[in-house]
Write a structure and sequence with these properties.
237 residues; alpha/beta; Nucleotidyltransferase, domain 5; five-stranded mixed beta sheet; 9 helices; 5 strands; 15% strand; DDE_dom; DNA binding; DNA recombination; Transpos_IS6; DNA-binding
C-alpha cells in the first residue's frame, strides 16, 4: 500500500489510505469504533479504537467542512422535523432540515421543543444557505408556524404529517448510530458527530432507486473520486 506525500498526514505512522478508509467506515456506516478497529485488524492494520476516534475527529471534520463548502445548491423545498433524543437521562430534541431530494441541509440539537428552538434552526439555515426556500414543509407542531412568521413571513408553509416523510426518514441513520453507541453521552457529542456525518452522507446519497444500474455505478465512482480528492487519499483496497 503506497501513497503520495501529503502534508495533512505528515507525522502519522500509517499511510493516508488507511486513515481515509477508517474515517470513511466510521461515518459512512453504523459501526462502532471497536468494529472499525476489528475490520482494519482483519486487513493486517493494527490500530486502537481510540486512534480511530482521533482520526475521525481530526480528519473527519476537515473532510466534512470541505464537502459542505463544495456542495451544490440544494432544492428550494425544505422539509423540517424534530425527534426526541434521550441524553444523560434528559430529553433533547434533534431538529433537522432536508431538501426535496433528501439531502441534509443542517441539524441542531437543543433542549427545547418550542418556537424559540424552531426559530434558531431557521436562522441557522438562512445563515448557512444564504437563501430562503420556496416552500417549507413541516408537521403540525405550532412552533414551526410561529418561527416561520418571524423569520421568513413570505415563504409558503405546508403543515401536514403525511407530507413530511422525507424529513422523518432522515432521522433513521442517527437512530441506528444511537443504538450502536448505546445512547449518546452529551448534546455536544451528537452535534459534533452529525456535523461530520451529514456532509459525508450527502456525498454518498446517490438515490439508487431513481437510477439505472450503469448510472448508479457511474455516480458512485464519482463520489469515490470526490472523496479521494477531498480526503487527500483513496480508500484502501
Amino acid at each position: 500500500m503506497s501513497t503520495h506525500p501529503n502534508p495533512r498526514f505528515a507525522g502519522y505512522r500509517y499511510p493516508a489510505e488507511v486513515i481515509s478508509t477508517a474515517v470513511w467506515l466510521y461515518f459512512r456506516f453504523p459501526l462502532s469504533l471497536r468494529m472499525v478497529e476489528e475490520m482494519l485488524a482483519a486487513r493486517g492494520i493494527t490500530v486502537s479504537y481510540e486512534t480511530v476516534r482521533q482520526w475521525g475527529l481530526k480528519f473527519g471534520r476537515d473532510i466534512a467542512n470541505t464537502l459542505r463548502r463544495r456542495a451544490p445548491r440544494r432544492g428550494d423545498k425544505w422539509h423540517l422535523d424534530e425527534v426526541v433524543l434521550a441524553i444523560g437521562g434528559k430529553r433533547h430534541s434533534l431538529w433537522r432540515a432536508v431538501d426535496k431530494d433528501g439531502f441534509v441541509l443542517d441539524a441542531l440539537v437543543q433542549s427545547r421543543r418550542d418556537a424559540k428552538a424552531a426559530k434558531r434552526l431557521l436562522r441557522k439555515l438562512l445563515k448557512r444557505l444564504g437563501v430562503e426556500p420556496r416552500v417549507l414543509v413541516t408537521d403540525k407542531l405550532k412552533s414551526y408556524a410561529a418561527a416561520k412568521r418571524e423569520t421568513m413571513p413570505g415563504v409558503e408553509h405546508r403543515q401536514h404529517k403525511g407530507l413530511n416523510n422525507r424529513a422523518e426518514n432522515s432521522h433513521q441513520p442517527t437512530r441506528r448510530r444511537e443504538r450502536q453507541m448505546k445512547r449518546f453521552k452529551s448534546a455536544r457529542q451528537v452535534q459534533l458527530f452529525l456535523s461530520i456525518h451529514d456532509p459525508i452522507a450527502n456525498l454518498f446519497h446517490l438515490r439508487r432507486d431513481h437510477r439505472s444500474v450503469a448510472d448508479y455505478r457511474t455516480v458512485r465512482a464519482q463520489a469515490f473520486d470526490t472523496w479521494a480528492e477531498v480526503a487527500g487519499a483513496r480508500l484502501a483496497a
